[in-house]
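Running this now, will post back.
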Amino acid sequence: MNIDSALFQENERTSSLGDARRYMEVGELVCECGKVLPSVTVAYETWGELNQAKDNAILVHHALSGDSHAIGWWDRMIGPEKPIDTTQFFVIGTNSLGGCQGSTGPTSIASDGKPYGSRFPMVTVGDMVEVQARLLDRLGIEVLHAVAGGSMGGMQSLEWTVRFPKRVRKAFVTASCAAHSPMQIGFNEVGRQAIMRDPQWQGGDYEVGSGPDDGLSIARMLGHLSFLSPEAFELKFGRKLRDKVVPSMTFDVEFEVESYLNYQGDKFTKRFDANSLLHLTRAIDYYEWKDVERAQCEFLFISYDSDWIYPSSQSSQLLDMALSAGKKAEWIELSLPYGHDAFLLYGELQGALARQFLTN
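Update: finished.
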């Protein structure tokens, strides 16, 4: 299979233009860490129509750097006549608690009129799910036809199945895991250290427009190295030089792959907050899927043989946990060369499996 050039565009095609983002206040939240957020806002978007029984809703969870505009970053999966069919289902996308795309996070304004910054509490995947549940309460949705998501989004979907088991019928979890391995935690820690060692981080209390862009850019560059497969990098870049025939023998950009990583890192600083990256990576490093016996839904787990950062062994473990708890579950490994980003960037095989799972 040929490597799609779209792989080397921004991996989550978020969009603040043309979306229909709305906001819901869901009240005070006592976080699992013990600290209190006096008021929490959830940014969300919806597509399709809620049926009379209010039982056709699908809650879609984004990965680390995504947002509520799920029909944008998962455009291969969500839309009219697509696998998550908006002519059949009422689809809801939210921005996760701790994010920077409308939901309450470190950039939000506290009661003293200043951004939370370093005062923002450590939040968990459980906290994220709690505020999503409150949103659904206000929308009058008691039961979800399904929860769906990949990577960090898959963790939120898993948490829904055990925190609110009576509210979930199906869980579609792709390229995710029950708990991070030491290597996954290590990658996230390098990204966090890149941010926190940037002098502009200022302990988390930087001003908007003068934050730790250098550290955030490096963290994103590291992330892009993990998103794709070695095969994808080799086929796209090889050892090609950037705009030259022979090396210049300097530390300037020499190779095409260096140019690509620098571009993606710098681009990321224009749309994402460094403190949000710290909080979200810490939340998923803390996460463990426990009490699987509580779940009452059916599961579909999907993984990719070229995904080395969330390897198939972790999805196999999810299957074993679900089956051991007596749940109906299936795991399918897809053979594609796209790495971790396969769940975002290629919809044909994954989409067919999701469509069958959601409509049966």
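The domain at 184-279 is CATH 1.10.1740.110 (Rna Polymerase Sigma Factor; Chain: A). More later if anyone needs it.
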